[in-house]
Every structure is written in structure tokens, then in C-alpha cells.
Design brief:
It is a single chain. The chain folds into 2 domains: 170 residues, Bordetella uptake gene, domain 1 (D-Maltodextrin-Binding Protein, domain 2, 3-Layer(aba) Sandwich), CATH 3.40.190.150; 99 residues, Periplasmic binding protein-like II (D-Maltodextrin-Binding Protein, domain 2), CATH 3.40.190. It contains 10 helices and 10 strands. Strands 1, 2, 3, 4, 5, 6, 7, 8, 9 and 10 form a 10-stranded mixed sheet that branches. The longest helix has 22 residues. The radius of gyration is 19 Å and the shape is globular. Belongs to the UPF0065 (bug) family. InterPro entries: BUG, Bug_dom1.
């Protein structure tokens, strides 16, 4: 069902009548990762600010696509929403040939919440002090250095793949089922490098247990201002980041979409909420519904070529 289907507003959804019962926020990744952290923050703040009941519900698996599929199948109830991001909405459709939904047709991009660079890090006891150390070691021993990501074909995995190509090196990718398992193995020294969203890694970075080597965005992260970008480390124009936002199934009444967009954007303007998001390593950014929809469509088209060039496949 196309996005324009929300233009018809059933009388049962008169403005101001929503919500009348708890809202389920599907979290398509395991507890502890960047998506989970931001989802719970938004759910809790929506509950506090509006006296709603917004309940996070982790539905992990298949690169985040299981949670999206479940939300689409729930239909336009107004009470099933999902925290999606670039991984499962922009990248995954080009990796899975049989997804029962199209992100640009079967979902409405309701409210952009935040964006974040990817961080390349290593354990505090690692021999690598800089990104240049990693490149030198990889050139001396191709395919000997390992890096973990939240999963095959995720934006984070592809950030690692793009860095390999930019640096002209070969390092071995170890995919995990979510951010937290990769983080645990990096802390234990079972993998040489962790490639992660900043929200998933920042607590361990601040605790001194992970050493950040670079962030992948064009500009430095406000959460990690002392960490250089990949571009500053010698790889001009390197820029990879990911975003998070709230989606609902196509056909959800416009009154519901408008209410959710308005209330989430109010949260993002709140200094306390902004600080809480930044403390997790992300940058809050409010958008109107049409702005977020355009971002989804643009990225969806752009990343088809990136995924194909990477050769990433779902095993």
C-alpha cells in the first residue's frame, strides 16, 4: 500500500482521540544495542511527557527484518510502531530476495530520531593505537586481522568493507547476531577490531575498556570529539553514518502519523532528551514526515549499488 493511502482519515480516528490504549514499539534488534537504547529512551519519554503507555518489544533476527515484517503484518492499527534504521530498511532489502515488504511502499516514515557515525575501535589492551597501525598490520599480513560487526550486510559491516577498499587492505569480517555479542568479543580480545554504532560502544569507550581509533562520518562526533574521522586519518571524503526513526505500516491514519511526528519532534527539542541522546553517542535530528520519507527513498536507491559492489550476501 502506497504512502498516499494515509490521506483518507476514518472518522474513528478523529484528531485528539489517539491513543486510547498502550502502544507497542517493536525493537528489531536484541537488547543492549544502539537501536534498543534509543527505542527505550523514546518510549520512556513519550510515556512520561504525554501520560501514554509505550512498551518496547524486542523482536530480533534476520538483520532486523523480522521486527519490520511483524510490524507490517500488524497492519495500520496505530498501536504497532517500530524503531527502524538504515540497516533493516535501506540495506537489508538488497540482501534478502524474498522480503514481504517494500520500505518505500509498505511503511510510513513517521519521525526521524537521530543519526550516528560508525566507530572503529579496539580493546584497551590492543596493540593498535591508531588507524594507521591497523592499516600497516593488515598490509603486512592480509586477512589476519579480524573485525566484528552486528551482522552480515548491515550498514556497519559495509562501513568496514568500504574502509577496506579505501585503504587497499584485506581484513576478515566476523558477523554477529547484534551489536552486544560483537562488543563482548571485542572486550575479551577475541576479535582485533569492533566496527559499531557509537551508541552501542560509547559506554565501554567512556569506561576506558575500548579504544576508539576513528569515526566514519565526515565530521567528528560531538560525543567523541577527540576521535579523528577516517577522512582525517588519510582517506579523503570517507563518510558513512546510520540513522534511526519511527515507522508505522502504510494505511495508518494521518491523524496518528501527525500525532506521533509532533510528539516525537517535541521530545527532540527538549534539552534533557537531546542531552540523553547525545550521551549515547547519537545526534538528535527532527524532521517533518515528508523530509524523512525523502531521506528513506534517497538512501534506499543509493545503497543498492553499495551493497552490490560489496558482494555481501546473507548466509
Amino acid at each position: 500500500m502506497a504512502l498516499v493511502s494515509v490521506a483518507v482519515l476514518p472518522t474513528a480516528w478523529a484528531q485528539g482521540s489517539y491513543p486510547t490504549k498502550p502502544i507497542r514499539m517493536v525493537v528489531p534488534f536484541p537488547p543492549g544495542g544502539g537501536t534498543d537504547i534509543l527505542s527505550r529512551l523514546v518510549a520512556n519519554k513519550l510515556t512520561e511527557a504525554n501520560h501514554w503507555t509505550v512498551v518496547p518489544d524486542n523482536r530480533a533476527g534476520a538483520g532486523g527484518t523480522i521486527g519490520i515484517t511483524e510490524t507490517v503484518k500488524a497492519g495500520p492499527t496505530g498501536y504497532d510502531i517500530v524503531m527502524g534504521q538504515k540497516d533493516n530498511l535501506v540495506v537489508a532489502p538488497w540482501l534478502y530476495g524474498n522480503l514481504p515488504w517494500d520500505p518505500t511502499k509498505d511503511l510510513i516514515a513517521v519521525a526521524h530520531v537521530a543519526y550516528t557515525p560508525v566507530v572503529i575501535a579496539t580493546s584497551a589492551g590492543s596493540r593498535f593505537k591508531t588507524l594507521a597501525d591497523v592499516v600497516a598490520a593488515a598490509k603486512a599480513a592480509p586477512d589476519a586481522i579480524t573485525y566484528g560487526s552486528p551482522g552480515n550486510g548491515t550498514t556497519i559491516h559495509l562501513a568496514g568493507d568500504l574502509f577496506e577498499k579505501a585503504a587497499g587492505i584485506k581484513i576478515r569480517h566476523i558477523p554477529y547476531k547484534g551489536s552486544n555479542p560483537a562488543l563482548m568479543d571485542a572486550l575479551a580480545g577475541n576479535i582485533d577490531l569492533l566496527v559499531s554504532s557509537v551508541p552501542s560502544a560509547i559506554a565501554q569507550i567512556k569506561a576506558g575498556k575500548l579504544r576508539p581509533l576513528a569515526v566514519t562520518s565526515a565530521a567528528r562526533s560531538s560525543s567523541l570529539p577527540d576521535v579523528p574521522t577516517v577522512a582525517e586519518s588519510g582517506y579523503k571524503d570517507f563518510d558513512v553514518s546510520t540513522w534511526y526513526g519511527v515507522f508505522v505500516p502504510a494505511g495508518t491514519p494521518v491523524a496518528v502519523v501527525t500525532t506521533l511526528n509532533t510528539e516525537i519532534n517535541k521530545l527532540l527539542a527538549n534539552p534533557e532528551v537531546k542531552a540523553a541522546i547525545q550521551a549515547q553517542g547519537a545526534e538528535p535530528l527532527a524532521m517533518k514526515v515528508d523530509q524523512f520519507s525523502n531521506l528513506l527513498k534517497t538512501d534506499y536507491a543509493k545503497w543498492k549499488g553499495i551493497v552490490q559492489a560489496s558482494g555481501a550476501k546473507i548466509e
